[in-house]
């Protein structure tokens, strides 16, 4: 940033924007991301989280515009992943190697594993508090949201939740708050949830219930990526509640790949069949759509159809990539059907059905297989499969 932003009295956002990044551990970030870090001034000066190693100079320069970094007394690390911890060794070197580093028990273990050294760890768990002057930092472990070390730091008097990766978005721009960017941020937040947190949805539900019971006042949510939620923090909490419930909607995603257009023709007929029953549909060619965009469409879809030609007795490699990725993120509550063209052995549909059953998706048809190029009858069978998917979905939702 060209200069740090004071987000509340004596509290500054001092992190960095990564305008260039496009591949974030396999997730496509068309608009880059930010690595947020926060400086809280007071009787003791506290830095919450750091940035990716290569942005360390920028972080230190941002801090220097407010105080001499040597005057930082305490570092809080909410999450060990390198985009937030990468700069820790250099930051500690700058502020003083023996200054206390607050983190969870798993945080201490994981920071050691990352940097192969000890810091002056002060291990904290849920409910522990650090009182400094007129400020209270309260810690809440959020294990597996999304790493074992993850935790939140809640600043009691200011009612600010530093939420680590939760509630984040991969977005980098000239807007820093929800009231500046408006609803445009929600697609980034949804993509982030679908690709980073979806498989932990039961834990998200449990956490939201725990936080509701705690009756925390939340004026602001400061995640480690993207914009800060200050106008309406409950908007992202409500969105997390909705996404983590994994409720199906009247929407089908048709995913396919094709070498010679046969599976593509089948995919289009299935799509037409779905649409003929007034069900919304997204047709996604895996050669044109990134796996993380496909995943974002899947999260609220009620049904998924996947098509692959048979290649060397298996499914097409790009479809295998997408299916491996989707399986890991465990989307629930889906109706499913497979399809594909083949030449002689035709294993693809069977393999896709196995993938569906591993995810406990409801396979509503044995799938449509077509030898080589589909004729009119074959395309009618595909159209009928589309109708069947749409009808089953409507019935399920009624
Ligand atoms: C390199 C290569 C390997 C193939 N291997 C198989 C195979 O193992 N079993 C099979 O049934 N068909 C195989 N096929 C045939 C394709 O599945 C068939 O051409 C199909 O119609 C392609 O569908 P598409 O037009 O959607 O790509 C192979 C085709 C190619 C080009």
From TrEMBL:
The gene is roo. It comes from Desulfobacula toluolica (strain DSM 7467 / Tol2). Gene3D superfamilies: 3.40.50.360, Ribonuclease Z/Hydroxyacylglutathione hydrolase-like (3.60.15.10). This is Roo: rubredoxin-oxygen oxidoreductase. Residues 252-390 form the Flavodoxin-like domain. In the N-terminal section; belongs to the zinc metallo-hydrolase group 3 family. InterPro entries: Flavodoxin/NO_synth, Flavoprotein-like_sf, Metallo-B-lactamas, ODP_dom, RibonucZ/Hydroxyglut_hydro, Rubredoxin-O_OxRdtase. GO terms for molecular function: electron transfer activity; FMN binding; metal ion binding; oxidoreductase activity. Pfam families: Flavodoxin_1, ODP. Coiled coil: none annotated.
């Amino acid at each position: 940033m060209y200069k740090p932003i004071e987000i509340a009295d004596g509290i500054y956002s001092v992190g960095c924007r990564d305008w260039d990044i496009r591949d974030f551990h396999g997730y496509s970030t068309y608009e880059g991301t930010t690595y947020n870090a926060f400086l809280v001034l007071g009787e003791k000066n506290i830095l919450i989280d750091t940035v990716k190693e290569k942005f360390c100079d920028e972080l230190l320069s941002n801090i220097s515009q407010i105080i001499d970094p040597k005057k930082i007394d305490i570092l809080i690390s909410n999450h060990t992943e390198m985009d937030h911890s990468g700069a820790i060794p250099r930051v500690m070197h700058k502020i003083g190697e023996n200054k206390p580093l607050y983190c969870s028990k798993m945080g201490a273990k994981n920071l050691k594993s990352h940097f192969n050294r000890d810091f002056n760890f002060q291990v904290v768990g849920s409910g522990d508090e650090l009182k400094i002057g007129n400020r209270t930092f309260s810690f809440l472990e959020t294990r597996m949201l999304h790493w074992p070390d993850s935790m939140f730091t809640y600043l009691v008097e200011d009612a600010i939740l530093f939420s680590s990766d939760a509630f984040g978005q991969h977005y980098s721009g000239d807007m820093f708050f929800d009231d500046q960017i408006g609803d445009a941020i929600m697609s980034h937040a949804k993509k982030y949830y679908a690709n980073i947190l979806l498989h932990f949805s039961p834990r998200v539900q449990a956490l939201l219930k725990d936080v509701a019971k705690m009756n925390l006042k939340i004026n602001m949510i400061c995640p480690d990526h993207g914009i800060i939620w200050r106008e309406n923090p409950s908007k992202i909490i409500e969105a997390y509640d909705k996404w983590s419930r994994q409720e199906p909607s009247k929407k089908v995603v048709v995913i396919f790949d094709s070498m010679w257009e046969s599976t593509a023709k089948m995919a289009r007929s299935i799509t037409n069949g779905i649409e003929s029953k007034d069900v919304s549909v997204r047709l996604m060619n895996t050669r044109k759509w990134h796996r993380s965009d496909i995943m974002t469409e899947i999260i609220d879809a009620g049904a998924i159809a996947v098509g692959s030609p048979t290649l060397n007795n298996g499914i097409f490699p790009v479809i295998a990539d997408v299916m491996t990725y989707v399986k890991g993120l465990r989307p629930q509550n889906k109706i499913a059907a497979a399809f594909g063209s083949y030449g002689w052995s035709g294993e693809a549909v069977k393999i896709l059905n196995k993938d569906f059953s591993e995810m406990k998706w409801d396979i509503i048809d044995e799938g449509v297989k077509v030898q080589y190029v589909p004729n009119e009858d074959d395309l009618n069978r595909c159209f009928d499969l589309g109708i069947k998917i749409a009808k089953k979905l409507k019935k399920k939702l009624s």
